[in-house]
Amino acid sequence: MKISGFQTRLLHTPADDPLADSIPDTGRRRAFVTLEMTTDEGIDGVGLTFVPALTASPVAGALRLSVDALAEMTIGQDPTAVDGIEAIVERLQNATSGAGPGGLLTMALAAVDMALWDIKGKALGQPVASLLGGYRRRVPTYASGALMRPVNVERLAEIGPMLVEKGFRQMKTQMGAEPSANREVERIRTLRNAVGDDIDLMCDINQLWSVNRAIDIGRRVEDYHLFWLEDVVAHDDYQGMAKVADALHTPIAAGEYVYGINPFRQMIENRSADIIMIDLLRVGGITPWRKVAAMAEAFNLPVVSHLVPEIHIQLMAATPNALTVEYMPWSLRLWQDPPTPTDGHLEVPNKPGLGLTFNQDALQQYATP
């Protein structure tokens, strides 16, 4: 089997939030690049990458060009061979090493890597989760995106119970934008009172706090039993994160802003985080994702996913130390019948490869010429 061709598309979709049911179209768009890769045996593979961007962002076009360049270099390669995906990815990394390892190149590589795994799974008649070793069919999932910091406190109290009614037993909110520590704490107090003590609450800071502020507010919200605090300080301040993690009882999650494998070693060796969050796009795809997960397992640390739940379910289901899948619905409209939560869990699709097919109507609707 040989890779024989590919097609990419640049899409811009509304930056709405279907989990909240009433978030209007604000005019912001998310820019996606889709990849459809073909082989000489009629088996195709799909991949996806994206940057949150305004419609006119030139970065999205650059990302698509990067996917095109990397996909072109796979023509004639066989992802099912003994020297298959691992060797193909290494060649792509070596060929582009002068422009990496982070940024658009790594995010473009992720789309190509996904498509290669999808092809291999389809060729062998197995889900990617099985190719990665398998472990379980269902993984807990948490609602994400509906309780973000632009949502006021009163609305938090309405949306939280709405998510519980939809079957979620876990959900994530945000702090980091309020002018005072007391107002930050009020957001958590309000949401906890609204959903009760049996719901797992996560909270993302998105690197907006200093070390001292993270410790101060982190201690104030410990009574509300957060499942984790996420990215409390700058992503590469490994010593600062370790100081916060050591000072708080609440687990610290981090990793979504990290590109490639090596920075995770720094994070793990410095004990900067209690929970390792791996972004499939920024880490460079399925091939490096599983290596980071194994590294975390060696240090007795759990891993969680970031974005693209429809693809992450394959990895999380095959990872013994995987904790919960982030159910962020940004990319779901691009697929036919993507996995949806049932009783707070996602299940691996009973189809070979990634188990996904692009919604061609959506691709045409959101395509950018």
Key terms for this structure?
369 residues, alpha/beta, Enolase-like, domain 1, TIM Barrel, nine-stranded mixed sheet, three-stranded antiparallel sheet, 14 strands
Describe the structure.
By secondary structure, the chain is α/β, with parallel strands linked by helices. It folds into two domains: 3-126 and 358-366, Enolase-like, domain 1 (2-Layer Sandwich), CATH 3.30.390.10; 130-356, Enolase-like C-terminal domain (TIM Barrel), CATH 3.20.20. It contains 13 helices and 14 strands. It has helices at 58-72, 85-95, 104-124, 128-131, 153-165, 181-195, 211-220, 238-247, 262-269, 280-283, 286-298, 309-317, 360-366; strands at residues 3-14, 29-39, 44-52, 138-147, 170-174, 200-204, 228-230, 252-254, 275-279, 303-306, 325-327, 335-336, 345-347, 357-358. The mean pLDDT is 95.
In short:
This protein has 369 residues and is α/β, with parallel strands linked by helices.
Q: Work out the radius of gyration.
A: 20 Å
How many discrete domains? Answer: 2
Under CATH, the homologous superfamily of the largest domain reads: Enolase-like C-terminal domain
- Large-scale geometry: globular
Strand content: 15-25%
Q: What name does CATH use for the topology of the largest domain?
A: TIM Barrel
Total strands: the figure is 14
- The residue ranges in which pLDDT falls below 50 over 5 or more consecutive positions are none
Judged by helices, strands and strand pairing, the structural class is: alpha/beta
Helix content: 25-40%
CATH class of the largest domain: Alpha Beta
Order of helices and strands: EEEHHHHEHEHEHEHEHEHHEHEEEEH
